[in-house]
Amino acid sequence: xxxxxxxxxxxxxxxxxxxxxxxxxxxxxxxxxxxxxxxxxxxxxxxxxxxxxxxxxxxxxxxxxxxxxxxxxxxxxxxxxxxxxxxxxxxxxxxxxxxxxxxxxxxxxxxxxxxxxxxxxxxxxxxxxxxxxxxxxxxxxxxxxxxxxxxxxxxxxxxxxxxxxxxxxxxxxxxxxxxxxxxxxxxxxxxxxxxxxxxxxxxxxxxxxxxxxxxxxxxxxxxxxxxxxxxxxxxxxxxxxxxxxxxxxxxxxxxxxxxxxxx
Length: 263
Description:
Blueprint: E1 11-15, H1 20-31, E2 35-40, H2 47-54, E3 64-68, H3 74-87, E4 93-98, H4 117-140, E5 144-154, H5 166-185, E6 191-198, H6 204-207, H7 212-222, H8 231-242, E7 253-256
Helix pairs in contact: 1-8, 3-4, 4-5
């Protein structure tokens, strides 16, 4: 294993890193020598499995910290960032990864429980708007490295309709727009921002979507490699985007799906 970053004391902040794409990305970066901070929001009943996952970081010669807090709460964000400023110092965050999947999966039409404006607002706040909030606060506290990367996860729902996915689809489109503007307006500060459009991946978040088994079967059928995307597939591209050689990739929506989205 090549520890590309082991002598640089870089940090990666992963918002939503207790499972799925976020956790896989954190483990990949840890293997290459980046210190890891995971901010997640999970119930006490889930913490046994999560702590076991976090023990994997003990295998690598890195620093690891985690916070179980709502990433969209301004007060919690302020406390976490103040703690980071005190404990890791300024100019050390190489990468901010946004892997939040808290959203409403409701139908637009139904006898009851259909999607409301409030559902859109909650989903947009968690899955799109708070990316900007975190970037802005990290910048204002001088925590980003001189060459920093902001990476978020979108999906094919950014432009394709799925039942019960209306609020999340809206949030993904907003996330991409916010990412493009971060790429433009924060570029003078050395920040590159990109979205990874992952293929259908069998994660906890996907399993919450009604009809996910059908989605997985259809994805396998149309994928050129006849398989689903894995969290590790996505994590590999996160790592590539964090390397020095990726410094000229900015404002992009990058498909990581084996060609699934064009078939």
